[in-house]
Amino acid sequence: MSPMYDTILVPTDGSGVAGVAATQAIALADRFGADVHALYVREDEADEGGEIATTAVAEQAATADVAATTAVVDADGPVYRAILDYADDHGVDCIVMGTHGRTGLGRYILGSVAERTLRESPVPVVTVHEETVVDEDLETILVPTDGSDCSEAAAAHAVALAEATGASLHVVHVVDLGVLPVDESGALIEELQQAGQHALESVIDRAEDVSSVQASVLSGSPYRAIVDYAESEDVDLVVMGTHGRTGFDRYLLGSVTERVVRLSDRPVLTLDDHERT
């Protein structure tokens, strides 16, 4: 099988969370024999931090014997656009980036740069938090599915990752109890569970070459069920799809995916339904 990724981009601003992103990017690159590009987007000509930040990533990559390229570019518009333009110009097939730490309420903040990159990137984006622990072995992958085109694309990518790494694959469907009528008798729940089972079977059928597959229908709040499952099963990577298009031809990040990205302490890989392995 050809490598999943050849060129991995890690935008950096020299912060702690960018350091975690660099660790994740280098771990993936080492696993797939990929190169790492460390990118610093300078918004102010007086900003001299780019060389220090990118060199730190390159030095970290060198210790893992991973080839690294560094670049400092001036922002000609939004920072996320400079990231995506660089990715397009250099044949990047995966972006790894950090979000912006925690609020006082113990919830992760999804910074505007990360959010816009997630929404508009044509290649997979892996997000991490400052407290994310990167597992270099990538032994367990989780993919939630609802049977939509977007989740099917995510499932295909997750299956390919599991095949390439030998990781076990966990597939879950969550029945959202919050959308059911208060006086629901149970028949509708059973029907939704059966639909969930069909969605799981679709993924299981395509995962015949994966070493181990575990499928579950869960119930509750979808994002909370996914986050809790990832923690309880010690998942190394969550793979999820983003959602549809608006009338402005921009991708929307589904609320479930966005909340998982915000709240999970596991790396989360997101991709849209136009990304195929």
pLDDT < 50 stretches? 244-253
For the largest beta-sheet, the strand count, sense and barrel status come to:
10 strands, mixed
| CATH-derived architecture of the largest domain | 3-Layer(aba) Sandwich
CATH superfamily of the largest domain: HUPs
What is the first-to-last residue Cα distance? Answer: 11 Å
Amount of helix: 25-40%
The count of helical stretches stands at 8
Strand order of the largest sheet: 3-2-1-4-5-12-9-6-7-8
Shape: globular
Strand content: 15-25%
Q: H/E element string?
A: EHEHEHEHEEHEHEHEEEHE
Radius of gyration: 19 Å
How many domain regions? Answer: 2
Assign the CATH class of the largest domain. Alpha Beta
Please tell me the overall pLDDT. Answer: 87
CATH fold description of the largest domain = Rossmann fold
Structural class: alpha/beta
Number of strands: 12
Question: Would you kindly provide a written description of the structure presented here, covering whatever features stand out?
Answer:
This is Nucleotide-binding universal stress UspA family protein. Belongs to the universal stress protein A family. Residues 4-129, 139-269 form the UspA domain. Pfam families: Usp. It comes from Haloplanus aerogenes. Helix content is 39%, strand content 23%. The protein has helices at residues 16-32, 50-63, 79-89, 112-120, 149-165, 187-206, 222-232, 255-263; strands at residues 7-11, 35-42, 68-74, 94-98, 125-128, 140-144, 168-176, 213-220, 237-241, 243-245, 251-252, 268-271. The strands form 2 sheets. The protein has a 10-stranded mixed beta sheet with strand order 3-2-1-4-5-12-9-6-7-8, with helices on both faces. It has a two-stranded antiparallel sheet with strand order 10-11. The termini are close together. It is α/β, with parallel strands linked by helices and 277 residues long. The chain folds into 2 domains: 7-128, Rossmann fold (3-Layer(aba) Sandwich); 140-271, 3-Layer(aba) Sandwich (Rossmann fold), CATH 3.40.50.620. The longest helix is centred in the C-terminal third of the chain and has 20 residues, at 187-206. α3 packs across α4 (112-120) and α7 packs parallel to α8 (255-263). The radius of gyration is 19 Å and the shape is globular. Mean pLDDT is 87; it is low at 244-253. β7 (168-176), α6 and β8 form a beta-alpha-beta unit.
